[in-house]
Amino acid sequence: MNIFLTGMRYLLLFVTASFSITAQAALDLLIFPEARTLRIKDNTSNTTDTSASIDFFGTAHYGQFRFLAEVFISEDNPETERLQIGYEFTPSSSAWLGRMHNLLGYWNTQYNHGTYLQTSISRPQIAEFEHNGGLFPSHTTGLLFETSQEITQEGSIDFSFVAGSSPELRADNEAQLNGLVLHTRELFNPGKGSHKLNLAARMIYSPQTMRNNQLGVFASQIEIAVTDPNVNSIHLTVAGLLAYWEFQSLNIYSSLFYIRDRVESNNTKNTGSFSSGYMQLDYLIEENWTLFGRLEDTFNETADPYLALMQNFSPTTQVAGIRWDVTHNQALKLEASEKELAGETITTLILNWSAVFP
């Protein structure tokens, strides 16, 4: 009931705001509700849980100005995940200011915080959000520049660059995760915590005939402040490749990350490097039925000083499932996964309903 009442309050807020600007600006609002039940089994326990969430995603434009907002409400707390104001210099170039998704890999900029748009229920470990134990900043608050250039009649190059704040690494506030967790700058309490610089760039090639298809590269420099007596700061250099390609009944998407890290304490600097990636395949077996599977793996992770701090990251995960699009805007999904975490094998089974309205 609490999540329903909170969701209704935010819906009324969005509707009220839309009435104030629709006479002058074009507004789109999408609502992504979700309910799931899951069962988790590890070496010593077997637990079940049921939860619900709702994601509000709105965009508006007035002349050359753009606005984007996303609010995600779960049983924990409502979170303003994105809040951006932008200006369109040309139809192919724009700049944004605010809290936004970071330019790392494919998954992070392709999907919102709901699960309806993605085929699977879960996200890859390397693309996990910060508060769920993610390795990298999924969000940043700062300035984003985007531009697109037609290179031939057959395709275009999209370039994006972001400069913003990095997260702080500290203990989980709600004690739901082990060890240290990345915490982004709070939008309405920006002075909380210590936040350094995050720089990221991405370049993507898209063929003209299949605009959904993408081949790209990305890179990032991240300085992370740490609230821990044994560690002062962390420096990450990230580079990688991404791909998404559609065939008749098969979609393939993948990202590969290479990371060099430096962990600084009072008297020492420990350096390391590792690589991690995933590949997911979606196969349409009938009009409304899709099988999906994902493999995730990490290499050279054993002695890495940064991964030693990130106790919630699983270096190896396998995922398989099926999606049934019940109607044009509702889906049921069943997903099974197995991952290795801190020497334990964890298996998870999730049943999920998700939708988009209107």
From TrEMBL:
Name this polypeptide is given: Porin domain-containing protein
Organism, as annotated: hydrothermal vent metagenome
